[in-house]
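Quick check before the chapter quiz. The format below is the same one you will see on the exam, so make sure you can read both the input and the output lines.
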Amino acid sequence: MELNECINFQLNNVHNAVFSYFKTMLAPYDVTPIQYALLKCLWTEDMQPPTQIAQTLQLDTSTVSGHLDRLEKKGLIERVYNAQDRRSIHVHLLESGAALQRPIEDTILKANQEITTGIIPEDLAVFKKQLKIIESNAKAGKAV
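Here is the expected output.
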């Protein structure tokens, strides 16, 4: 099989291109794509423990922790510790983080529309369904 025919190679190239595009689109807000995903979790439900955010995003807790550090340094979130159990942490969205919701979500919507230009909605739905099948097969250890 030629390298450019390998699904891993194709998906990696697409991932890199899409990630780079979203990174550029989010740059005016000083937020990376992963930081957007973390903020999106908090816009949906504030005061989540980092483990819940990690589970939602299918990331390691240590990866989420590092990104939360950066969002905290930017003044967008804060960690709230339980007074009775300092090991119990919840992530709270600050007003500055909440204020980014509308402009960032508008940007994400526009970016999604731009990168799917030329794909009819029915084909896009089928494509997303096929991606889920590939993901499921890979997680199950099946040959794709």
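If your answer matched, good. Residues 3-101 form a domain with the Arc Repressor Mutant, subunit A fold (CATH 1.10.10.10).
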